[in-house]
Amino acid sequence: MNICNLMSVVNSATSKPEDGMSSILHVNIRSLNCNFDHLCTFVAQLDSKPIVIVVSETWLSDDSPVSLLRLDGYHSPICQNRDSKRGGGVAIYVSSMINYRIENTFTQLSEIIHITCIPKHSRDFTVIGMYNPPSSNKDEFICAFDNLLESISVDKKSIYLLGDFNIDILDINRTTTNYTNAITSNGFQILNDEPTRVCDTTETCIDHIISNSEDPSQTVTTYKTSFTDHYPISISIPTKKITAISTENFPYMKFLHDSTEKCKFLFLLSHNLNKSEILNMNNCDEACDRLISIIRECISRFTILRRNTSKDQKQWITNEIKNAITKRDQLFKAYRDRKESLDCKRAWIKQRNRVTTLIRKSKKHYYADKFDLAMESKEKTFDTINTILGKKPDRYFSR
To answer: For the whole model, what pTM was predicted?
Structure first.
């Protein structure tokens, strides 16, 4: 076991999950490249980070720089891009606190990602992110969607489908009737019914959360924010809160000297384990506590523990930006309530543009200052570049 993995074992053994709720979020982003900073600020302001984020209308291509689109606290995004033309696309961000598996979905639907999430202390669950273009043949889509639901309905796990389906369930007609019938006949239901896209003349519910779970503790939230023309929606799901301890939020280890010190460390650890008679203990809890104590004692003899002070948040998100976003959403609410008022619309658009300008200036100044401070150090310069690119250097651990 290498020393990095050893530290992970110690950390995991001392982290106990707490009962609680997590959430799955859907955002129609209308260009992930253009609105990524707005997504970062939106997620940073939530009371708790969603365990999964589904993003539709990413407008990415296979040549898009995905490494620049990493969210703090999440794995690299899983992307399904359009092959032949611009627009559309789906991406999923999964919390770095859990593992996941990408599933092969045999379906006629092209803009879809199917994953199984594997929390350490909770039951596995399925998340499917989708996008159905507004110009699609709705009858063909409903037929393919019906086949998809039928194929996954045999799964005993909780299943959550989120996306922009471009079928307005507030407008009762033949299409919506066939769509809802396909959903309910396979044991699923649409969990949200508030408008998710509000324009000057229309209010539609075309972004949906669909699930086979009937847990009464689940709640759906519609976030009436305005960085795109769709409202983000989320569902809280019963799971256990996992306290992830990684090199981002725990003291990392750095050996004092060379490989000779590592050999001494392993010899001492082996010696202390042999004389501890842990395997002969009858009480499992006491044995685990003793094991962790021995490992920590040996680590403290041969390493320096340093606190990693980096915050799990984009540090260019200032209080000025947060306050400007709050004001933007307040003005948007006023405009939504008084759509006939041109003054309300102008005030909202002006504030929306101000938020975008503040974010761009803040990022520019933040990274310019970082490069100025790192000017005389190649190591710090490359650290700053890695931060911008979403890469995590391994230099903190001795090899």
So the answer is: 0.70
